[in-house]
Amino acid sequence: MYLSHLHIRHFRSLYDVTLELKPLTIFIGPNASGKSNVFKALRFLHDAVAGDRLEWQAYDSQIDDLVWYGTDEAGNRPETIEFDCDFRSLQGRPLGTYRTAFHCAEYITIDSEQLKIALSADSPELSTFLHREQESVSLHIGKRGKPLKRPSRLKAPSDRTLILREEGPDLQMDPARSIYEHIRGWRFFDVVPTEARRASFIPQYPEEVPPLANDASNLSAFLYALWRLQSDDFDMIAEYLADMVGFPQNLIVEHDADRGGRNARYALIERPFGEEHPIPPESLSDGTVRLLAYLALLLGDRSVSLACLEEPDRGLHPRLMLHLADILRQMVAPTSSEGEQDVLAPQVLIATHSPEFLDCFDLREEQDYLQVYIVERDAAGKTVFKPATAKEFIPWLEKYRLGEAVRRRFIS
Q1: Are strands 306-310 and 263-270 parallel, antiparallel or unpaired?
Q2: Which of 60, 123, 125, 361 is the most buried (most CB within 10 A)?
Q3: What is the pTM of this model?
Q4: Are 223 and 234 in contact (CB under 8 A)?
């Protein structure tokens, strides 16, 4: 399953935006163009569906800055934020849609909510699972997955709580629960190297690998748990880092339990100095720390269904950008196994303003799983997304790399 279609209305600079997404989607544009508002909108919806309740309630304090600042066609400032999300299989089969609208006045309330799902792999038709208009809720499909002749009526738990949030963890219908789990797995990463260098708390014998924090502040704990519980993934990260950067020979982790502590810490073994002099995180460059964090996320964090990466190319040498692009390419390009059980890593959305990073991709070769949007603001302050496709820009792409076409403003 991946998020194939996204429609957002009235969220910040996203006045009325429709995006067709692929397993890898890149938004490129200047600062303040609004590309990061896509991530903020997705995080808003994620927090409403499956986030921490206190974090969700905190949006009330931001309410005046969440809604589009301008006025609509009637001269009024909008009071609703709306989302339409479509989910598909890699083969293009519709799996479900989730639509919801939030009313933003003194505080945020739920205006409407609708979840449609595919009841079988044989039918392209989607059936309404639940429908909500303010406090009125109707359930259209029974526990056995058959449409109800007369939809059952339910009472909404609260005008501030989504039905999917309330019922999602206990849903018995696999298609409906899959959509809830997908949204719950949305993550938003902007690595902060100073935080990612810190030692972090974890039991000496962890029972599970914790999700990687959005700023990578628990990178030490994450790598330690990965080393304990998913050693193959840990070794793969170490190998990729060594191949990409050159000097690192190995990645090591340790726990300070023997000294009465409760924290884990990572370090690098570099070829010239050997194991006697491990290189601590404080001595690593910001680019190396960011690269390690993104490798950990993409190769080791199995809790992620969709990863939004804020400028992952920041601080990277162009050669390392090529390596990062190769990792992303390997992660999202579908590889066949049996039937429709194709192997797919997290869907990845990237915001960047680096044409050099875009140069690492080829729309003609990768259009099956890569979508690129050129992002700008118009005179009214609305964010505009221009899709860059191989067919449309083939005259320029025959002569220039994709990033060069952006630099020269052939794609604009």
Answers
A1: unpaired
A2: 361
A3: 0.89
A4: yes
